[in-house]
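Shipment paperwork, digital attachment
Item: protein structure file
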Amino acid sequence: MSDFEDDRGGDEATERIPIVAIGASAGGLNPLEAFFTNAPDSLGWCYIIIQHLSPDYRPVMDELRARTTHLKIRHIEDGLPITPDTIYLNRPNTGSVVEADVFRTFTYGKADQVPHLPIDSMLASLASRGGEKTAAVILSGSGSDGSNGAQILHAAGGALLVQTPQEA
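Attachment content:
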């Protein structure tokens, strides 16, 4: 077989869409803009942006991302399968996870844990895919959301990048 032939043989892990999950608080807008200005937009990757959003949040992230990328931009919806060359954005008061490369969502109730940890939830769910073709980027913030999920994903073999505290 030549170096150019496809020798994947139908292995489920090699057929998976690569996912880059990005966790950020409100301070992550500038780093996100820089990230997507430089991110490839036709490699078949899926990007999931999970931010801390207040219930009265007016969505502007899709407008901001549209200025810096040609990737499709969608909001996460329950039952929506991940697709390549797409950025997915979370919604306020809604947690989301990925199960078998399909989004599952849940609404935070008043009795739920406060503060909500949407980044941890997403990253921990991505660990179930195994580490191959799954990465996390943690940007900004003063809280701990993302730290536990990042450890779980990293233990499963996922790549992990963290913004330096001096830049966050």
